[in-house]
Amino acid sequence: MKKHHEPFGLHLMIDAYDCSPKSLNDTNLIYKILDELPDLLGMKKLMKPYIVYAEGNNKRDPGGWSGFVMIQESHVSIHTFIKRRFVTTDVYSCKHFDTQKAIDYFKKTFHTEDIEFYIEERGKKYPPENID
């Protein structure tokens, strides 16, 4: 008989449209999100958030801020596209977390209701115990 395994973790992917350009271009806000969201979701940061400006490389990608924070449980990342009023984010954690709390947080922070999100279970066959 095959045992059911708990998935290794959850991967929340958010695409948000019609965001406030001011919030998308605010490095302090991007830093704040990456600094406080892990705590809000009960995760432990392993480093301070890291943010860089990525110049546009063509008409499809007009540039914006990208940020990342590594957490004990995996990572949180943000990529803003200021001229397109668009942001894409990932919250990936091996620890179960409240995905709706994260979605609501991003909606409020980027001043939008136009959001698509995907929640994937990762590591669906992750072994439940050490295998020697």
UniProtKB/TrEMBL annotation:
Entries under Pfam families matching the protein: AdoMet_dc
Alphabetized UniProt keyword annotations: Autocatalytic cleavage, Decarboxylase, Lyase, Polyamine biosynthesis, Pyruvate, Schiff base, Spermidine biosynthesis, Zymogen
Presence of the UniProt keyword Lyase in the record: yes
Cellular component annotations (GO), alphabetically ordered: cytosol
GO molecular function list: adenosylmethionine decarboxylase activity
Domain of life: Bacteria
GO terms for biological process, alphabetical: spermidine biosynthetic process
UniProt KW Lyase keyword: yes
Cofactor names: pyruvate
NCBIfam families the record matches: SAM_DCase_Bsu (TIGR03330)
PANTHER family associated with the record: S-ADENOSYLMETHIONINE DECARBOXYLASE PROENZYME
Protein name listed in UniProt: S-adenosylmethionine decarboxylase proenzyme
